Amino acid sequence: MQLTVLDLLGVPKLDLGRSDRNEQSTSEAEQHSDENSPEIVSIHGKLGLGKTPLARKDYNKKEVLISVLSAFIKDIRDHNMSVKDLVAKVRETLKYEYLIVMDDVGDTKAWEDLKDAFPDYSKGSRVLIITPQVSVAQRAATKTDPYPLRFMKQEEAEELLRTKIFNENECPQKL
C-alpha cells in the first residue's frame, strides 16, 4: 500500500484542490509504523498556500483540543519555566499516543529546542510541523519526506472555487 503525507493526515484531494497529492509516496512510513518513536510529518511552502488550513482540516476539533489542553495546562503553573523544564514537562505529559501540530516553525533552532520533548516510546504518535522553510521541514521529518505545498494550477483553482461556491454545480452562464 502506498501512502502520501496527505493520506496520513486524512485530507481529501478536493479540499486542497491539488491533483498531484498522490505523487509523493511515503511507503516507508508504513514499514516503520511499529517503531516506538513518533512520526514527524512536515509540510512546507510559501506563505498563503494553505499549509495551516490543511493541518486544521481534521485536527482542529473542539473536543480534542479541550481534552489535550486540559490535561496539559492542569500541570503547568509556572510561566517562567526554562526550555529544559518545559521539555521535561511536555515529555512527561505525552506518555501515551498523541498528535502535536506545530504551526509556523520559523527556524531549525526552534525545532531543535523542542524535539527532545516528544517521547520515543509513544507508538502511533504524530508530530505535524508546518513551516515556510524547507530546511526546517527536512530537519524535522523522520519517516516521510517533507510535503512541499505548491501553487494550484489554473484548472485546480477553478474547480475548487466552483465546488466551494456552487456546490459542485456548473457556474451559471450569466456569470
Task: Write a concise keyword list for the protein shown above.
175 residues, alpha/beta, Rossmann fold, 4-stranded parallel β-sheet, 43% helix, 10% strand, disordered N terminus
What does this 3D model show about the protein?
The chain is α/β, with parallel strands linked by helices and 175 residues long. It contains nine helices and four strands, in the order αααβαααβαβαβα. The chain has helices at residues 5-9, 13-16, 27-31, 51-59, 62-75, 83-93, 108-114, 134-140, 154-166; strands at residues 39-44, 99-102, 126-131, 147-148. Helix 7 (108-114) links the parallel strand 2 (99-102) and strand 3. The chain starts with a helix and ends in a 9-residue tail after the last helix.
Strands side by side in the biggest sheet:
2-3-1-4
- End-to-end separation in angstroms reads 44 Å
Query: How many separate domains?
Result: 1
Largest sheet: 4 strands, parallel
Name the CATH class. Alpha Beta
Helix and strand composition category: alpha/beta
Number of helices: 9
Count of beta strands: 4
Share in helix? 40-55%
- Overall mean pLDDT stands at 68
CATH architecture level-2 label: 3-Layer(aba) Sandwich
Q: How large a portion of the residues is in β-strands, by DSSP E? A: 5-15%
CATH topology: Rossmann fold
In short:
The chain is of the alpha/beta class and 175 residues long. The protein has helices at residues 5-9, 13-16, 27-31, 51-59, 62-75, 83-93, 108-114, 134-140, 154-166; strands at 39-44, 99-102, 126-131, 147-148.
List the helices and strands and how they pair.
Layout: H1 5-9, H2 13-16, H3 27-31, E1 39-44, H4 51-59, H5 62-75, H6 83-93, E2 99-102, H7 108-114, E3 126-131, H8 134-140, E4 147-148, H9 154-166
Parallel strand pairs: 1-3, 1-4, 2-3
